[in-house]
Amino acid sequence: MATSRPSPRMIRAAPALSGAALLLVLAMLLAVSVGAFLLTPSEVLRGLIERGDPVTARIVHDLRLPRVMIAALVGANLAIAGALLQGITRNPLGDPHLLGFSAGAGLFAVIAIDVLPATPTAIVTPAAFVGSLVSAAVVYALAWRSGITPVRFALAGVAVAALFTALSTAVLATSDRFTQSVLAFLAGGLYGSGWDEVQHIWPYTLIAGAGAIVMADNLNVLALGDDVARSLGMRVERVRLGLVVVAALLTGSAVAVAGLLAFIGLMVPHVARLAVGGDYRAVVPLSALLGALLLVLADTLARVVIAPVEIPVGIVTAVLGAPALLLLIRTRT
Amino acid sequence: MKKPVLLLLGALLVSVSLLSACSSDDDGDSTAEATATTASETATATEAATETTTAEASATTAAGAEGTATDLLGREVTVASPPERIVTLSPSAIEILYAVGGEAVGRSTTAVHPEGVESLEDIGPSYQPNFEAVLALDPDLVIADASAQAHLLDQITAALGDVPVVFVGAVVYDDVATSMGILGQLLGKQTEAEAAIAEMEAAKADAEAAAADQTPPKVLIIDGAPDDFFVALPDSWPGSLVEVLGGENVAASQPAAGPFPGYTQLSLEAILASEADVILAITLGPPGATLSQGILGETAYADLPAVQNGRVHEIDAEVFLQAPGPRAADGLRELAEYLYPAAR
Amino acid sequence: MTAARGTAVFELRGASARLGAHLAVRELSLEVRRGEVTAILGPNGSGKSTLLRLLSGSLRPTTGAVLFEGEPLEALAPKAVARRVAYLPQSPIAPVDLTVGELAWRGRYPHRRWLTAAGEADRRAVETAMSLAEVDELADRTLGTLSGGERQRAWVALALAQEPDVLLLDEPTTFLDIGHQADLLRLLARLNRDRGLTVVMVLHDLSQAAHAADRVIGLHDGAVVFDGAPTEVLTAEGVSSLFGTRVRVMLDPDSGRPVVLPALDMPDRGEASTHP
C-alpha cells in the first residue's frame, strides 16, 4: 500500500536530487575548463592543486575556481530564498527580488559604496546583509496586523521593493562619488569575484541553507493554511519569522557578492516543484542544486560567448531560464 | 517546536555574526591600506603622488636593477628589473607608456593609439579587463588606469596576485607628466620620460602665453549625443584643460550629477542663461549628426553668443575625453586657438 | 481515552471573540463533555465557526477564557494540544499538487520530534486514518484531481492521522452527496462508540444533527439560544425562533429523533420569529 512509505515524494526525489548534483559537478568542471582559452582536464587538475605551469595554475586556482564557486553559492542562496518566500507567502511570485529583500540589500550596499570612502567588498557585504534584514523587517511590520497574512506580506513586499529601488536610484542620482562601482554593483554580475568573495558568502550558504532544509517540513504544514497549521500545533508566526530571517540571510549575502540578480529566486523553485512535486523537503535542496547549476552555466556562457568581453550574467540567466521554465510548464501541466 | 526553532535561530544568528566578524578581520589587513588610499579622493591622491614622485625622481635607476615608484593612487610599486612584458588596461595607460619609450604586449579593446597597437593582444574592455587574458600574456608589469579603474583596485590586485600593477592616467593635465615620471622610473627610461614631460610643460607654457592679457571667455564643454549630453565640470579631464587655459567654465558652480564624476546635466534654461562664448562639443555614440551640429541646428540655442559668433567647436573624443594622455599637449594648443583666436 | 466519559474536555468561561469590528461570539460560557457528539446549529453568521476556531486554538478569545481539561488553551504547548485535538476548517486550502497520502502524513506533524524520521507508529497511524476515511485507494492521487467528496475524506484522513481524542469539524457534510454524508457520519459514530472520540461539529442540516448528535447547541448572534438533547430542544418553536422561519418537526419512528422540515406551505416568518 502506498501509505506504507514514510514520505513517498522524498524517495521519488532521490533521482532528481542526485541527477542535479551530478550535473552541477559536471557544469563546475566545464566552467573551470573554459574561459579566455580552453584547458584540458589534466591541466585543470594540475591547476587545482597548484602544480604545473604557474600561469595556468593561477588562472585555474585564483580566477576560475573561486568564480565558479561564487556562482554556485549565489545561485543556491537565491534559489533557496525564493523557495522559502514562495512557501511563506503561498504565492508563486514569492521571490527575494520581487518582495524587496534584494532591493533593501541593494540600497544599503549603494549607500555604503556612496557614503563611505572605502573599498567596496569590505563594507558592502555586511551592509547588504543588514539591508536585506531591514527590508524583511519593514515588509513584516507593514504586513503585520495581529498576525501576517500571505497576501498582505506579498503586497507589502512589492511596495517595499519599489520604494527601496527608487531610493537606490535617488542615491545614485545625487551622488558625487565614485559611481562606476555602484552602477556595476546594481547591474549584478560576478566580474572580478575571487576568494575574498567566497569567504564572504559560504558561511551564510552553509548555515542558512542548512536551516532552510531543516525547516522545510514546516513549509509543508504552512501550505495548508494558517488555521490548519495552528491546529497541527505549529506556532505559525514564530516559524514564519524564522523562515523570513533565513531568507534574508541568504539574499543579503548573495546580493553583497553578486549585486542584483533577478529571476533565479523566482524561477528555480518552480522548476524544482515541477520535477519533484510540492514537498518542500525535496523542493528546498533541489532548488539549491538547480540554482547553483543555472548560475554556473549562465556565468560560464557570460564569460566565453564574446570573450574577452563579458555579457552581464543576468541576461544569460533569463535567456537560459525563461524558455526552460516555459517548456516545463507546457509539458508538465 | 518552540525550543528547537529558537535554538536554531539563535545558533544561526550567533554563528553568522561570528563568521562575518572573522571574515571581516581577515580582510582587515588587506583592505586597511586600500581604504586609506582609494582614489575616490582623486585630487588628494594626485597631489600626494605628485609630491612623492618629484621627490624620488632624482633617484636614479640603472638598467637591470630594481625600480620603485609611487603610483597615482599612492601605492608603492616595485619591479625587480626593467619589465619586458607589459600589459596595459586602458587607452590612457598605453599612450603614456609609449610616450616614455615603452612597449606593451597587451592592450584594452578600445586602445588604438599610437599607431600599431591594434595588433597587440586584446585583453578586454577597460571597464572590465579580462584577467585570464591578462595573465595568459605572462606580464611582468600591468599598467592600470588611476581615474577609470580605481574602483577596480581590489579586483585587479586580487586577480593578478604577485604581478606588479601600477596605476597611472590623468584627471588633470599635470597628471600626464606625473604618470610619465612614474613609468620612466619603473622602466628605467628616465631620459625619455624627461623629454616627454618637457613637451607637456612646453605645451602648457604656450597655452599660458596665449591666455596672457586676454579676457577669459565663458566656456561650455559638452559630451554625448545631440539629444542627450553631459556638461563637463572644471574637475573633469576636458574641464581641467580649459582651466589651464584660464577659461571660465560656465558650469563651475554646479554639483556633479548623473553617473560620471566630474560631469553634470544642465537644463536648457541654464545653458541659455550661461551666455557661453565658446562651446566645445565631444560627440559620443553611433555615427550620425555630431553634437555640435545638433547644437547649431536647435533654434533654442540660436541666441547663445557662441552660436552667433560661430564659436561652437567639435573636439576629438579620444584626446579630450576617453584617453587622457600625451596627446593633450597638442590638444591644449588646439583649445588655445578656440579660446583665444585673437592671440594668434 | 484518559478521563471518564461526561467530564468537561473544553470549557468556555465568558469567552468573547471579535472578528474585525464585529463581535462574533458574546461572553459564551459552556462545556464540551468527553465522549459526546455535539452539534452546533444556527443561521449564517451566528458565530458557529468562530466558536469552533476558539476551541481549536486558531483564534484567541478577546475576553474570557477557553480551558482545555482545566488549563487555559494558550498556556499549553500547541503540539501537545494538537496530539489531542484535531480541527478541520470549512474550506481548507492545500496545494493542488499535493497527494492524498502526503496530506494524511501532515497529520503526524504534532507527533514528530525535532529532526527525527517518521517511525512505525506514524506509519500505522496514517495507514489507519486513510483506511478509516476510505481514501487508501487514492493515496497517490493529487488533490487537484479529486471530487469534492474525495477531497473532504482526504482532509478527514489528515485529522484522524493526528490520533486525536477530540475532533472539531466545520460543516463536514456540506459538499458531500447523501451517500458520503452518511458514510462520514457513520464513521464519526463508530469512532465515538469504539474509541470514545469526542466530536464537536458545525452542521447545517438539522435532521442530520438530530440524528448524529448527543447534544445540539443553537447559536444566534454569538449567544446560546438552546442547548440540550435533540429531542428536548429541536422543537418547532425552538427551531423556528432560531432561524426566523416556520418549520415542522416530526419524530422518526425508528430512532425517535426529530426530523425538521421547512414549512413551505405556511406563511413565512410567523409569530415564532421573535426569538428570545
Stretches with pLDDT under 50, minimum 5 residues of chain B: 1-64
Distance between the termini of chain B: 88 Å
The beta-strand count of chain B equals 13
Which outline of chain B best applies? globular
User: H/E series of chain B, N to C?
Assistant: HHEEEHEEHEHEHHEEHEEHEHHEHH
**Span between termini of chain C:** 38 Å
Strand content of chain B: 5-15%
What summary fits the major beta sheet of chain B?
A: 6 strands, mixed
Profile the largest sheet of chain C. Answer: 6 strands, mixed
* Average pLDDT figure of chain C: 88
The residue-averaged pLDDT of chain B reads 80
Put simply, the count of helices of chain C is: 9
| Overall shape of chain C | globular
Q: Give, in order, the helices and strands of chain C.
A: EEEHEEHEHHHEHEHEEHHEE
Which two chains form the greatest contact, residue counts included? A-B, 56 and 56 residues
Work out the helix count of chain B. 13
Structural class of chain B: alpha/beta
Description:
The complex is a heterotrimer of chains A (333), B (344) and C (276). With 333 residues, chain A is mainly α. Chain A contains 13 helices and no strands. In chain A, α1 (8-33) runs parallel beside α12. Chain A is globular, with a radius of gyration of 20 Å. Mean pLDDT of chain A is 84; it is low at 1-6. In chain B, strands 8, 9, 10, 11, 12 and 13 form a 6-stranded mixed beta sheet that branches. The model of chain B is unreliable at 1-64 (pLDDT under 50). In chain B, 51% of the residues are buried. By secondary structure, chain C is an alpha/beta fold. Helix content of chain C is 31%, strand content 26%. Chain C is built from 9 helices and 12 strands. Chain C has helices at 48-56, 78-82, 100-106, 120-132, 148-161, 178-195, 206-212, 230-233, 236-243; strands spanning 8-19, 22-33, 37-41, 63-68, 71-72, 85-88, 166-170, 198-202, 215-220, 223-228, 247-251, 258-262. Chain C has a 6-stranded mixed beta sheet with strand order 6-7-8-3-9-10, sandwiched between helices. In chain C, a hairpin with a 2-residue loop joins β1 (8-19) and β2 (22-33). In chain C, α3 (100-106) runs parallel beside α5 (148-161) and α4 packs antiparallel against α5. The relative contact order of chain C is 0.15. The chains are: A mainly alpha (333), B alpha/beta (344), C alpha/beta (276). Chains A and B meet through α3, α5, α7, α8 and α10 of A and α1, α4 and α5 of B.
